[in-house]
Each structure stands twice: as structure tokens, then as C-alpha cells.
């Protein structure tokens, strides 16, 4: 079963391909995506990586949380589902 990770603190210059390559040493990356502004397509500084197993996801979190990518320290943790997030007011 795959596991989706939240990746925060991304440089605005980081690409989805670079994000995928950064996580690949820890297992199979099913998908990687950088969240962008709707109007400008500018990175919002965070994204998501889906690893093929929970074990690989845990290894990536342990190795990459607070480690640099493109000059910025990443925040890596398990992504919360839309149902688990607090509602916006």
C-alpha cells in the first residue's frame, strides 16, 4: 500500500522531477507534485510525494526531514487526508 508524504519548505525553483529524484534513493516514487498558484503557476513552496510502501515513506521521512534541497531545509511528514484537516473558516 502506498503512502503519501507532505513536503514543505521547497525552493520556488524546485521541480517535480527534482523532488522525485531526491526521494528515489529511499524507494519507488509513485508520484511527485509541486503545488502551484492557479493564476501564475508559481510554486507555493510545498508539494507531495507518494512512495510505494509505508516502509519506504518512513525511511524517506527519517532521512530527509530538515535536510536541504536546493538550499532550503525540507519539512517531510505523512500527508493528512482532506477529511483529517481542520475546516477553513
How is this structure best described in words?
This protein has 89 residues and is α+β, with helices and mostly antiparallel strands. It is built from two helices and six strands; from the N terminus they run βαββαβββ. The chain has a single domain, classed as 2-Layer Sandwich (Alpha-Beta Plaits), CATH 3.30.70. The strands form two sheets. Strands 2-3-1-6 form a four-stranded antiparallel sheet. The protein has a two-stranded antiparallel sheet with strand order 4-5. It is globular, with a radius of gyration of 13 Å. 20% of the residues are buried. The model has no long low-confidence stretch (mean pLDDT 92).
CATH fold-level assignment = Alpha-Beta Plaits
Oligomer state equals single chain
At the fourth level of CATH, the homologous superfamily is RRM (RNA recognition motif) domain
Strand content of the residues, in percent? Answer: 25-35%
Largest sheet: 4 strands, antiparallel
Low-confidence regions? none
Proper CATH architecture? 2-Layer Sandwich
Specify Rg, calculated over alpha carbons: 13 Å
Tally of separate domains: 1
**In terms of structural class, how would the helical and strand content be classed?**
alpha+beta
Mean residue pLDDT: 92
What is the chain-wise order of helices and strands? EHEEHEEE
Overall strand count: 6
The portion of residues assigned to helices is 10-25%
Tell me the name of the CATH class. Alpha Beta
